[in-house]
Specification:
heterodimer, A: Phosphorylase Kinase, domain 1, seven-stranded antiparallel beta sheet, 15 strands, about 30% strand, disordered C terminus, B: alpha+beta, Immunoglobulin-like, 2 helices, 10 strands, globular
Chain lengths: ~280, ~150
């Protein structure tokens, strides 16, 4: 509205008013009606939107209602009412939480699926990565079943061998009947004694101070854990030759040959130290 | 949507594992083994682990020295065993021989102990490559073994 300094009066509806004044008055009325209609529409809209919402009561109101119910219908009815009020309160709290964290609440179930998918993929990956060789730890040895090379390799545990030159040489106190020592190898890290009988059958006793990996045929080889006085040992039969391997005093020991398992165990439990003489020689 | 994500992730893992295995096999060995092939006589056997009962390899690198021990136990029928020892150094992803030795025994048992300081420098990875020929008469079985890799 533009003010010109001219005083205007509110329309009185007098018939002698001029046509110009009449038009101005009608225009103002129309604007007022239109504004009122818009205001009403807005109020109605708000009322319509909130009509389905649960009414919110104060805690004081709830307490007063509970007291009234208790007086009129007894304590049991009042307790039942309290339960209903608590349930309603919890529902209200949940709704508020959902409104505040709506997006997270909607995404959460998806997060669970994604996490499950990641876990599955990770496990598949781990399994795939380990298919290079099937490794099985047995008595300080790790066995690799390498199908592509058709052999099994047995790695010794690195913690069981000192990897220094042999300072304490062991020997077998007992010899299987019919066999005689025919070959002796003494190297800084390897000592081997070979025994033979009249049928040219052999067995040998090995002491070593280096980590090694033994390789055998995949087929026809069986493995078994055996208890010795020194701890657990690994026994394997490889067709005509048998092997018994164990660790003791920082060295790896092995008896191999055509002997039975019992003979090998009896031999293994007779190992003894060679005594070093002052002159550098040895006494068995 | 979830199926797509799962499929994509599975593909990624499989590609990663396959590629890593391929990478492991891509390390080249361009050494000349003509001498070994030239020296060996007899007829190769197609049977595997028919002459060799067990073959053990030990390898270590310390104090500027690489040391190896190879022991081979053949079955009683084995008459001769020949062992070729190669100590290899990985240079720019290629295994290069820094040492080679030959041991022979007219027996069904052999041990081959070798060591070298030549070409052993810090900052490289080394391994042992063993080629074992186990003879029964004129026919031999060939077994090739590698030690685990040692960083020095």
């Amino acid at each position: 509205m533009k003010f010109t300094g001219k005083k205007e009066t509110v329309s009185s509806g007098k018939p002698n008013e001029s046509t110009e004044d009449e038009d101005m008055r009608m225009s103002k009325d129309a604007k007022l009606y239109k504004g009122l209609e818009e205001l009403n529409e807005e109020k109605i809209k708000v009322l319509m939107e909130t009509a389905d919402q649960e009414p919110e009561f104060s805690k004081e109101h709830d307490a007063k209602m509970r007291q009234m119910v208790e007086e009129r219908f007894g304590q049991e009815a009042a307790e039942r009412m309290s339960e209903i009020q608590m349930t309603r309160q919890k529902a209200d709290d949940d709704e508020k939480w959902t409104k505040q964290n709506g997006k997270l609440y909607q995404i959460y179930p998806r997060f669970k699926k994604i996490a499950a998918a990641v876990l599955i993929v990770f496990m598949l990956g781990a399994i795939t990565m380990s298919t290079e060789a099937f490794r099985a730890p047995i008595v300080n040895f790790i066995m690799n079943f390498q199908k592509e090379f058709m052999h099994i390799s047995v790695e010794q545990s690195e913690t069981m061998v000192d990897e220094l030159d042999i300072e304490r040489i062991y020997y077998l106190e007992k010899t299987i009947e019919g066999y005689e020592l025919f070959d002796e190898i003494i190297e800084p890290k390897l000592v081997v004694r070979r025994y033979k009988n009249g049928k040219q059958q052999e067995y040998k006793f090995t002491q070593q101070s280096y980590i090694s990996t033994s390789n055998f045929d995949n087929e026809g080889t069986g493995y078994e854990s055996v208890d010795l006085i020194y701890g657990e040992a690994l026994f394997n039969d490889n067709n005509e030759i048998y092997y018994l391997t164990w660790f003791y005093d920082g060295y790896a020991f092995e008896i191999s040959g055509v002997l039975t398992k019992e003979e090998m165990i009896s031999l293994a439990e007779t190992i003894a130290l060679k005594e070093t003489t002052d002159e550098g020689g040895v006494n068995e | 949507m979830m199926r797509k994500i799962l499929s994509l992730m599975l593909c990624a893992v499989l590609l990663f594992t396959i590629s890593s295995q391929v990478y492991a096999e891509e390390v080249e060995d361009n050494n000349d083994y003509m001498e070994e092939e030239y020296q060996m006589e007899g007829t190769p056997s197609l049977l595997r682990w028919s002459n060799v009962s067990s073959a053990t390899v030990g390898f270590s690198v310390s104090g500027g020295t690489a040391s190896s021990v190879i022991t081979v136990q053949g079955y009683s029928k084995v008459t001769t065993i020949v062992v070729y020892t190669y100590i290899q150094k990985k240079v720019n992803g290629v295994w290069t021989n820094v040492y080679q030795g030959i041991d022979k025994a007219n027996s069904n048992y052999i041990y081959a102990i070798r060591s070298t300081t030549s070409g052993i420098t810090k900052g490289y990875t080394y391994r042992l490559r063993a080629r074992i020929y186990a003879y029964v008469g004129d026919t031999y079985e060939l077994v090739t073994l590698y030690s685990s890799e040692k960083s020095y």
